[in-house]
């Protein structure tokens, strides 16, 4: 396999960065994960708009135009054999001479790293045979700017680990009694045939998959609301889903060891999963 680092493609074991990189010292950087199906980037512009926003929010200079980013992503996909891959893209503020919390002045060149990962076949690809996943609820212990796709993921990592140790695959987070999102996903519930997802704010990452699900529901006249979800509504929901770029839409069939609805992937999930997969195939083939 090949990765990209600061202007060159290379084997992963050839890629070296300084321990004085602010990504290493302060987790001072941002990232994106962009899926490609059949080697075709999916929702590329939406991911790049979010990348540009994350960089601007933490004042890192964007080293590339959108077309340059596209070319780098496509070259990396090609060099890794194409097919279904995710592109991981990270930009840190760069390597400094001394460890200082304040930004280096004058600024240094940002560090750019990219690699690909395999994408497992998502549940949404086969709605009729999907088995669903388990989740637990945990307190959202993260910072107040979860809308920035920061590489500072220690709380997310600790929360996900707690879920895994409880035999679940995701932690659904609660702040002041309301659902925010998952440790690496957005959350949807279905109550009386209406789909509900929390509104975008500084408390959640504006998921590209989340936005597409909302868009698809609206265009197919499936009732969907963006509003806060109190904990008791989460517990009583007929369906719960979590969404992310590499896992698409995953039905949660158990919450805190209690069945969600009848304990199987729900009918509304099946309908929306089909729309999602049709949309993906129209854009990327397969
Ligand atoms: N929320 C968090 C905290 C995430 O880390 C992610 C993605 O990994 C998401 C939501 C889902 O975002 P997207 O659909 O853009 O992958």
What does this structure look like?
The chain has helices at residues 22-26, 44-57, 66-79, 154-165, 208-219, 231-236, 267-284, and strands at 3-5, 8-10, 29-37, 40-41, 85-92, 111-118, 133-139, 170-175, 178-182, 186-191, 194-197, 224-226, 239-244, 248-255, 258-259. It has 286 residues and is of the alpha+beta class. It folds into two domains: 3-119, Aminotransferase class 4, branched-chain amino acid transferase, N-terminal domain (D-amino Acid Aminotransferase, Chain A, domain 1), CATH 3.30.470.10; 124-284, D-amino Acid Aminotransferase, subunit A, domain 2 (D-amino Acid Aminotransferase, Chain A, domain 2), CATH 3.20.10.10. A hairpin with a 2-residue loop joins strand 8 (170-175) and strand 9 (178-182). The chain is globular and about 55 Å long. The relative contact order is 0.15. Pyridoxal-5'-phosphate binds at residues 33, 181, 184-186, 205, 207-210, 243-245. The site of pyridoxal-5'-phosphate has 13 residues, from helix 5 and strand 13.
What is the subunit organization of this protein?
A: single chain
Q: Would you give the CATH topology of the largest domain?
A: D-amino Acid Aminotransferase, Chain A, domain 2
Which class of the largest domain in CATH terms? Alpha Beta
Q: Give helix % range.
A: 25-40%
CATH superfamily of the largest domain: D-amino Acid Aminotransferase, subunit A, domain 2
What is the CATH architecture term of the largest domain?
Alpha-Beta Barrel
Distance between the termini: 24 Å
What structural category characterises the helix and strand content? alpha+beta
Beta-sheet strand percentage?
Answer: 25-35%
Average per-residue pLDDT, rounded, comes to 97
Largest pleated sheet: 9 strands, mixed
Q: What's the order of the H and E elements? A: EEHEEHHEEEHEEEEHEHEEEH
Shape: globular
